[in-house]
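Internal ticket #5521
Category: modeling
Description: The requester needs a full-assembly model to guide mutagenesis choices. All entity lines are attached below as received. Residue total reported by intake: 548.
Assigned to: D.W.
Attached entities:
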Amino acid sequence: MSITLKQAQQALTAAHEAAVQHNVKMNIAIVDSGANLVTFLRMDDAWLGSLDISIKKAKTARFFDMNTGEIGKLSQPGGPLYNIEHSNNGLITFPGGIPIRNNQGAVIGAIGVSGDTVENDHTVAQAGADAVQAVKE
Amino acid sequence: MSITLKQAQQALTAAHEAAVQHNVKMNIAIVDSGANLVTFLRMDDAWLGSLDISIKKAKTARFFDMNTGEIGKLSQPGGPLYNIEHSNNGLITFPGGIPIRNNQGAVIGAIGVSGDTVENDHTVAQAGADAVQAVKE
Amino acid sequence: MSITLKQAQQALTAAHEAAVQHNVKMNIAIVDSGANLVTFLRMDDAWLGSLDISIKKAKTARFFDMNTGEIGKLSQPGGPLYNIEHSNNGLITFPGGIPIRNNQGAVIGAIGVSGDTVENDHTVAQAGADAVQAVKE
Amino acid sequence: MSITLKQAQQALTAAHEAAVQHNVKMNIAIVDSGANLVTFLRMDDAWLGSLDISIKKAKTARFFDMNTGEIGKLSQPGGPLYNIEHSNNGLITFPGGIPIRNNQGAVIGAIGVSGDTVENDHTVAQAGADAVQAVKE
């Protein structure tokens, strides 16, 4: 089971609205269960370098079905997943990537957000993920 | 001068509507004047391999400010630009990529569409490009 | 708004002169607002490995509109942006990359310098960035 | 023996002047005997996709110490070097890349030019190569 375009658009729109509300300029990427891009948008004047980061966060969150920040705790020097970022053509393991689940809890994709502090990136990503999970299919 | 998110969304929506109307399943990518992605969508059940092709078509159209199919005429065996596709981390030089101009004719980005015949890819891309050029700024 | 060739040449010349003055051998790269190379020079006997580093520093500074050394403070183990260097085909996050602003303060590109200590790299880059900002347009 | 910065600047300036004279917008790259970039410039509004092509032309000309167009004759379907463009992270084998020789005829680097017809690319590159060979060392 994988996210539909309609669901990906809901996630994208909800995250975009959250970004506008928080007055932050974001890159927002949604991937499907195969970790392939479904929808994307970059807000005017958002950091250009965050384009790739937002996509990598979404992929990373789906690659391991957990929030990117959780992986980052394990990839520190001395940690069990030290430098896992070298795999998969580059992972991003700080906050801003979140798996997207349907209303039965199954992972159907992921969202990645980049453009501000990692706390704001995470908040905006959560708004996107929540929007999908809230919808009755 | 570069395409705004609002203009990129207009192009994406118009191209998506054209794809629905023609009953084809497309990947649609919009890049800015720096050839960097601004908006993207992949329709349900669209070819997965067309994801990268749609982005490369958009980049190629902006890289040379011409329709991708025009470059393909020049890059054939014996042609003046034979194997130009090896540059820029891979170009796509068959139809489906079109520069996006504002209503004064300046190139502000490009659209790339992939998922069906190259004729249909081009038709859908044109719908997206036309939607931006038609708008009074 | 993006740096012109004339401005990029001013930045390159000023940085080169600063390098000669400090008796250091540098690679110097200027990118535009799309993070694409505009001018470059490598001084005789400058480190060959610094060629790529200078370009990556310039791109990194433009990707996030801040000095590369600032990003490096945040990307340390335990920091919020740990291992961000894996994005964008490789970032360089130690000093030597600086955004270039016009005389109204808008970012129009960036300069990256590599070939000596990071302190000297930064000093030479600053000379280049200052040369552009000083000019009345 | 390799091209000096001073010689590379002479080649770059001569090629740039030829481009201005012919009213064409070019990307111009000079590499040394190790096929590594020494100087580069991109003229305002030159094709963005020609950035990479100009560098690849310069590298290709030095990789094989011949004009890029000569290699292109051999890399056609059925030819002895068919699809050689797949090597070295991408070659460009149509005209616009020329070895740079010193006034004793030794190859010390190469120039690559891209931004217009391959004939004009070649003409501008020749102006750059000639400027170095004409100088008594």
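Resolution: model delivered.
Comment from assignee: DSSP finds four helices and four strands in chain D.
Ticket closed.
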